[in-house]
Design a protein that fits this description.
Layout: E1 7-9, E2 12-14, E3 21-26, E4 29-36, E5 43-50, E6 55-57, E7 60-62, E8 71-78, E9 81-87, E10 96-100, H1 104-113, E11 117-125, E12 132-135, H2 142-152, E13 157-159, E14 163-164, E15 179-180, H3 183-191, E16 195-201, E17 204-209, H4 210-218, E18 222-226, H5 229-237, E19 243-248, H6 252-262, H7 267-283, E20 292-295, H8 299-309, E21 334-340, E22 343-348, H9 350-354, E23 360-364, E24 369-370, E25 376-384
Parallel strand pairs: 7-11, 11-25, 12-18, 12-19, 13-18, 14-15, 19-20
Antiparallel strand pairs: 1-2, 3-4, 4-5, 5-6, 8-9, 9-10, 10-11, 14-17, 16-17, 21-22, 22-23, 23-25, 24-25
The structure holds adenosine-5'-triphosphate and the ligand Nc1nc2c(ncn2[C@@H]2O[C@H](COP(=O)(O)O)[C@@H](O)[C@H]2O)c(=O)[nH]1.
Amino acid sequence: MGEEAPEFVNGEINLEGKDFRTATTVGHKTYLISRSGDESKSTISIRILDKSTQTWAVPTVLGTQPVNFEAHSAILVNENMILVVVKKGAPLIESIWFLEVNTSFVKQQSKITGTEVVVWSKGVLGKSQKPVVISGPSGVGKGTLIAKLMKDFPSRFGFSVSHTTRAPREKEIDGTHYHFTERSKMEKEISEGKFLEFAHVHGNLYGTSIEAVEAVTDEGKRCILDIDVQGARSVRASSLEALFIFVCPPSFEELEKRLRARGTEAEEQIQKRLRNARAELDQSNTPGLFDHFLVNDDLETCYGNFKKLLLLDDGSADSDDSYSTADSKSTPSYTVLSKQDSEILLQPETHDVEKGIASLLALDLSSLSGGAPGRTRGLKIQSVHKD
Ligand SMILES: Nc1ncnc2c1ncn2[C@@H]1O[C@H](COP(=O)(O)OP(=O)(O)OP(=O)(O)O)[C@@H](O)[C@H]1O
Ligand SMILES: Nc1nc2c(ncn2[C@@H]2O[C@H](COP(=O)(O)O)[C@@H](O)[C@H]2O)c(=O)[nH]1
């Protein structure tokens, strides 16, 4: 594993002098978190000691992990997760991570892999607006509506770039319209838990990676997903809270006309898409699946109604959860000091306090939401000023 073996003193793990290693006990298990590699290219490795059997396990580690840090500190948040603060010399918010050890996602993945599982989730300040899922039959105009929204509100909305095994159309750019990928590669990544949802659509595999959604929300934008009805159903069943909109054609004849006029599909594919359209229109009526329906007859009218649903018609922003006012651009390094109820105190390095560039911080975890396989949101940070 590339790091030193743990030493024991009186039956406990000896951590003395090892600022790169922490041991956190959750129930009868102790999670040993160590840095492996050097400071310029360090990653975290994890081992689990089952105290009842005195056996070590190397868990399957999922999620995006913290990299390139000097040291870390850790504290138990609750029986489900450990807060890990890494020392990075980067804005504090880049340093706050959660290691999930017992959440429902961990249990689900443990069942699938048949191994011990831990999952990383990055901490994010404040909450984000609900992503918007847009579904509807091929050719109805989803892409056209989304393109108009992106053009009018580029700083407010971001598109979740899906993965697909279908071949790119002329003018489609890899990484912008889709991540065009090989089926075997995509299937492997699905089995590694990297996808929020996936479905076989019109003979190809399509899917939304967790990273695709997080990349948009990390930029502070509202995420738009253009996915089929099966995908919408999977997102409904996931932990991602979203707004679900179904776009209907004014008639089946008009849908066929648009699909043909677009000129991107061969006849066989057009026939397949039209057959699937009937099924999608039927399934869109599943109770509780879609929150809103839009009929895309006249484009401008439909776009106006779309904006109304997103509360954009009167020039006001959609409900915007306020973010913490803590200065997330400061770069002092912090370590975990103590925990009381849902508040964790973080201590800056002594010389940062002496220089007057840092004070104690209180991390309020009472409104956490989300979590692995996505980000852990709802963090609030406040400076604690001494009188
Ligand atoms: N209201 C409308 N009236 C007439 N044509 C339209 C309207 N909306 C979209 N179109 C046209 O219909 C065609 C299909 O639209 P678009 O590509 O946006 O559909 P889509 O739902 O995204 O399809 P897919 O699911 O296959 O990606 C395009 O050529 C587009 O210009
Ligand atoms: N379940 C998912 N469906 C997706 C995703 N990305 C796109 N789609 C849907 O596929 C069809 C066809 O798209 P096309 O670009 O080949 O015309 C369309 O209904 C999309 O909504 C996805 O990630 N997951």
